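Lab meeting tomorrow. Please check the following:
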Amino acid sequence: MKSGKKRKPNVNLIQTSRCYTIREVAARLDRQVPTVRAWVKEGLPVLADTAPRLIDGAELKAWLKLKWARRKKPCGLGELYCCKCSQPRAPDPNSVKTEPAAVAATTLIRGKCGECTTPMQQVRKTADLPEILREMMGKAKADSNLTGYRDPRANQPLWSGQGAFDFEQYEGGSGSVH
C-alpha cells in the first residue's frame, strides 16, 4: 500500500463491464483486503454462488459512489463545517470575519463554531456574500462587514459609491451602496 493514500478511492479505476475478486478490488483501489471484506459486510453486493466471491464492477462503482454521497453534509446558507462536531454549524456571530480568497470571485469566511468554539473556515462565492453574512451575523453586524463590498453580479454604475451595503435595496433588486 502506498504511503500517500487518499481517503476516497478512485472509482474510475473500476471497469463496469467486468467482475473482480476481493483481492483484485483491494489492489485496484489501493485498499487492504479486510477493508473490502468489511464493505461486503456493510452491503456491497457480491455475485451469488461464486468461489472466490466475485463483485460486479458496475455494482461496486455504484455502491462506492452511494457510500460517499451519504457521508456528505452540505452547509446551509449561514453555516460552516465544524470538524470537531463533524457537521455543519452556525458560527458565533461575533467571530465571523471575511477576507479575499486566492481564487477570483471567492471570499474566505472564518469563524468559530457556536457549539464548541473550534475555528472553522469556508470559501464561498463573493456574489453570495451578502446573503451568507446576513444569515450568519444578522443585519447590523453584516452591514459593517460589507463596507466597501462590490457585488460582481450587479451593474458597475450601481456600485460606484462607498459605504455600507443596503440589504433592503439589494433584495429589491437595485443593489446599491450608499
About this structure: Confidence is low (pLDDT under 50) at residues 152-165, 170-178.
